[in-house]
Each structure stands twice: as structure tokens, then as C-alpha cells.
């Protein structure tokens, strides 16, 4: 099946009314920061939490009555799983999802809540896919690939149709890339309607599989990434030629940049964007001059973020901003010293959140102890002021966070 605008339009007609027509919202703060007009396409508002609901439904609707009766199976790191499970339950079709063992718990739990049977197998999406195909052959399930299926790609392409209707005068669209289904569908739709719109992909530096494949070099994938939704070691066979034809470039986002982009979405824009969904913002912030004066859309592809990870990202962001710091203070092991140190921190407008001290395991003289204090502050400069004040008062102090020296 050749992917075309007509097939994307057919997908749009098929899934209409069963997925959210997501808004394209302006982002004034970010626009001022980078000197471009930035719009966010909020696919995190889909009922399943990501764009995957589109392609999954388009594929499911193509199945025969016998195939629906037998049930469906998919492999997924989370979002495709929820898209398949959401529509399978709605259409009363049994669904089995094979997920890699390292899949975030929130995505496993959510998939099971949607009625799917979850099988954990393999350390990668590829290994999970091998198990899914084996189960499909054994049990007669219809296999729904997360990205390398023309019907799935066409379903994802409906985002491109909506984008063009909402903002036909875009200069560029930044799209997260894993296996390539999302960017392929969007590219076919948008480039057919307006070839002048530039399509740019964004991958994690740790998983540049599409970029490597297009450049003809051996894959360099591996490591722990916050953007597990695009941590794909093998891009699709169907998607590669589409990306090669329509996509200007694949940009890479550093892990630290993706983390900060997630934090910015949460704090500045009140949006929950998982790592993969924040990758386009990370790429934009890494090279704002490239987009200066242009009208660009970022695809916020999903919002299925583990609550513990959200908490960690926010706390790490506070530390980077100097709004929280951990100090190690050397003090005499004598009555009243702890109280005097606490008083000094309070006089410096620091708020102590947690305090511990250790006599036995630190390399300090026997009549001294080391005190660890986690404090709330207002800025990096404020942290330095408190550190300097403690040092001047005779208490050697060093910072254990990453905000200052």
C-alpha cells in the first residue's frame, strides 16, 4: 500500500469522532524566548494520552469480523499499547500487549486498566516485538505494528491534516521520531498540501536510529533515556524512504536538554509532556537562531509521564535554579553548634527542609562532624550568599548540588 494524501484523508474520515481533534495553541513565553512564533500541537490531550490512538484505531477498523473475534496484539513501550487497548475495549476486542521489561510502571498500569493483557518480555522494543509476533502466530491474533504499517502511518498523518487546517502558513514542524510512523504520516500530508513547510525530526542522542539509517552508518543506540517513547533501535522499513524524501533533517536532543524541556512544559506552560513529546522543544532551545522569525509548530506527542519521574524532574529543576540546595557543613561535635548553624541559615533567609549529621563515616577529625542540610533558597546567588556566610562564621561549607561551586 502506497501512502498518499488520499489515504490519510480516508483515515481521517474513518476515525472522525473517535479521537480528539487536538488544539494548536500559541506559546507566547517560549516565542519571546526564542524569537519565533511557536505553536504547540497538543496530542497529549488524546483520551489515551498520546497520538498513538489515531493510527491504532485506523488499523483496528480495517480488520475483518473474524480478525476482531480472534483479538489483537501489539508490542509497545507504552503509548501504542494504550491506544490499542483504548479502542479495543471500546469495540469489545480482546487485546494483548507485549511491553519491554523496563517500561515505566504508569504505562503498564494504565494499559491494564484499559482491559488489555500485558506481557513483559525483552529488554528492547525489538525483543518485545519478536515475542508479540510469536504469540500472534500461536494464538491467531491480528498484529498491530506501532509504526511500520501503512494504515497506522495514515492514522498518524491525520495530525498533519489538522495542522494544515489550523495553520496553513507554518514555516516548519518539529516532530519526535522513534520508528518514524508519526513523522512519516505528518510529512506525507503536509508536504503534499504545502511543499514549502519544512519538516524536521527530533531524536534522543542516545537513540539516533533513524538518523543513522538515513546516513548509512551502524546504529549507535543504547542507554537509559527519559524519552523511552522514541527509544527505538530499528526504524521502520516503510518509514525510512518517506522520511528520506520529505524530512529536511533529523536533529538530536541531549538527555539533559530533554529533561529541562519536560520541566519547562510543566512549570511554564502547565503541560504534562513525556520525554519524547518534549524532544522537539529541547531541539528548539538548543538552536533557537535556526528558527528566529519563523512560525513553527512542535508536536507534543504524549503526556504519559510517571508521577515519580515528574517529582524527580521538578526537584532537580529546583536544584539547577538554585531554589533548593544541599550543603555539607563541617562543625565541632559540641552542644549548641547545630542550633547556631540552623540560626545562621535562617538569618540568611534559607529554609531548612532536611538536616542530618554523621560522626563515623566522613573524613573529618574525631571531634568534628559533617552536617548535611537541604535548604530552600531563591536563586543560585542566594545559595552562594549562605555558603559564604557559613564559611565566614567558621564553618567550612561546600555545595553538594549542581548549582554552584
Q: In words, what does this structure look like?
A:
The protein has about 400 residues and is α/β, with parallel strands linked by helices. It folds into 3 domains: about 5-50 and about 150-315, 3-Layer(aba) Sandwich (Rossmann fold); about 55-145, 3-Layer(aba) Sandwich (Rossmann fold), CATH 3.40.50.1100; about 320-400, Alpha-Beta Plaits (2-Layer Sandwich). The protein is built from 16 helices and 14 strands. The chain has helices at about 5-15, 30-35, 50-60, 65-70, 80-90, 105-115, 125-140, 150-165, 180-195, 210-215, 240-245, 255-270, 275-285, 305-320, 335-345, 380-390, and strands spanning about 25, 35-40, 70-75, 95-100, 115-120, 140-145, 170-175, 200-205, 250-255, 295-300, 325-330, 350-360, 370-375, 395-400. The strands form 3 sheets. The chain has a 6-stranded mixed beta sheet, sandwiched between helices. Strands 5-4-3-6 form a 4-stranded parallel beta sheet, with helices on both faces. The chain is elongated, with a radius of gyration of 25 Å. The mean pLDDT is about 90.
Amino acid at each position: 500500500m502506497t501512502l498518499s494524501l488520499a489515504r490519510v484523508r480516508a483515515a481521517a474520515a474513518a476515525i472522525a469522532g473517535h479521537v480528539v481533534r487536538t488544539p494548536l495553541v500559541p506559546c507566547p513565553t517560549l516565542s519571546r524566548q526564542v524569537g519565533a512564533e511557536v505553536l504547540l500541537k497538543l496530542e497529549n490531550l488524546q483520551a489515551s494520552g498520546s497520538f498513538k490512538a489515531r493510527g491504532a484505531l485506523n488499523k483496528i477498523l480495517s480488520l475483518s469480523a473474524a480478525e476482531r473475534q480472534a483479538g489483537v496484539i501489539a508490542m509497545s513501550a507504552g503509548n501504542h499499547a494504550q491506544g490499542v487497548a483504548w479502542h479495543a475495549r471500546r469495540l469489545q476486542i480482546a487485546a494483548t500487549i507485549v511491553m519491554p521489561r523496563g517500561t515505566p510502571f504508569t504505562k503498564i498500569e494504565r494499559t491494564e486498566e484499559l482491559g488489555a493483557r500485558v506481557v513483559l518480555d525483552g529488554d528492547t522494543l525489538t525483543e518485545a516485538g519478536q515475542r508479540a509476533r510469536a504469540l500472534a502466530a500461536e494464538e491467531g491474533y491480528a498484529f498491530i505494528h506501532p509504526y511500520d504499517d501503512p494504515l497506522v502511518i495514515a492514522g498518524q498523518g491525520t495530525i498533519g491534516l489538522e495542522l494544515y487546517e489550523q495553520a496553513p502558513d507554518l514555516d516548519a514542524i518539529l516532530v519526535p521520531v522513534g520508528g518514524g510512523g508519526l513523522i512519516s504520516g505528518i510529512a506525507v500530508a503536509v508536504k503534499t498540501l504545502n511543499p514549502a513547510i519544512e519538516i524536521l525530526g527530533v531524536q534522543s542522542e542516545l537513540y539516533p536510529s533513524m538518523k543513522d539509517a538515513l546516513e548509512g552508518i551502524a546504529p549507535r543506540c543504547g542507554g537509559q533515556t527519559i524519552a523511552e517513547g522514541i527509544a527505538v533501535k530499528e526504524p521502520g522499513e516503510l518509514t525510512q524512504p518517506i522520511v528520506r524524501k520529505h524530512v529536511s533533517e533529523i536533529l538530536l536532543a541531549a538527555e539533559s536538554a530533554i529533561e529541562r524541556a519536560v520541566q519547562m512544559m510543566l512549570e511554564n506552560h502547565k503541560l504534562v509532556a513525556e520525554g519524547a513529546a518534549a524532544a522537539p522543544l529541547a531541539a528548539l532551545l538548543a538552536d533557537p537562531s535556526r528558527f528566529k522569525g519563523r512560525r513553527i509548530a512542535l508536536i507534543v506527542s504524549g503526556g504519559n509521564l510517571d508521577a515519580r519521574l515528574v517529582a524527580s524532574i521538578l526537584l532537580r529543576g529546583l536544584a539547577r535554579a538554585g531554589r533548593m540546595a544541599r550543603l555539607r557543613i563541617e562543625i565541632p561535635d559540641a552542644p549548641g553548634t547545630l542550633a547556631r548553624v540552623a540560626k545562621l541559615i535562617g538569618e540568611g533567609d534559607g529554609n531548612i527542609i532536611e538536616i542530618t549529621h554523621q560522626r563515623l563515616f566522613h573524613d573529618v577529625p574525631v571531634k568534628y562532624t559533617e552536617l548535611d542540610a537541604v535548604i530552600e533558597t531563591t536563586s543560585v546567588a542566594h545559595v552562594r550568599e549562605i555558603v559564604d556566610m557559613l564559611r565566614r562564621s567558621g564553618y567550612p561549607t561546600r555545595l553538594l548540588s549542581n548549582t554552584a561551586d
